Amino acid sequence: SYWEFEWAADWADLSPRVLTEFDQFNNEGESFYTNKIGFKAILDYLREPLSPQMLHFNTTITNIEHSSNGVILTTSNGKIAKRYDYVIVTSSLGHLKKYHRFGGSCKIFLRWDKPWWNKNSSSIAPLPVEGMARDVLDPFERELTTLQAMDWDPNTLIAWVAGAGHPVVDNMSDEEFSYRLTKLIRDMKNDQSIAPPSEIVRTKLTKNELLLGSYSYMSLAQAKAKISHSRLSIPVRHKKRPVVLFAGEATHHRWD
């Protein structure tokens, strides 16, 4: 459902309080999405003023040693021979699951050599009904509810999966996902000649140890405990001076 897609959450665990805090500063019903360039242009812009020596790709921070004298970092390549005044941590909060829930909302890009859908379609909802199309719906068919057409690529659909469905599809191989999706589409269209997608592009976020999901949401337990996301931005201080600061989507109340 849209409720799950927007907040990357299982709707049964999502607090309605998100409706009072979420604000994109846009008109009601207005939505934004990237073009074929994606977020790369934004990253290129942020990287432009930085020297290559300041960027450490394929490197994981394994330890943050902090004191009143500053911060020393240890990476997967060893300890950095430099002491920093402070560091800003923007890592995924997928491991903080007691109150601040970390959910899943994924997009799977599906390309066909020849589109089988109407060119005027903006979105397609399979929605098999238990007891009619199937005696019993399994988690895959229950959670895959939307296929969205792309304006800038007429041969591609985006499959949206959120909430409890995210780990379900991440645990499937591309071959299994293609087979299950094709069967669902053929049954939906009553056309067994529809070809499987020729290409599948996706990232298994729940399998990435540095992510373990997509982004956080406000759970019922968090709302009941009156814990705001902004409390996660409280820094670690030494002698009243912040040395380890926290940022990212989970620390900002307006975007969760």
UniProtKB/TrEMBL annotation:
The keyword Flavoprotein applies. Residues 8-255 form the Amine oxidase domain. Keywords: Cytoplasm, FAD, Flavoprotein, Oxidoreductase. Pfam families: Amino_oxidase (PF01593). GO terms for molecular function: polyamine oxidase activity. One of its GO terms (cellular component) is cytoplasm. This is Amine oxidase domain-containing protein. It comes from Cylicostephanus goldi (Nematode worm).
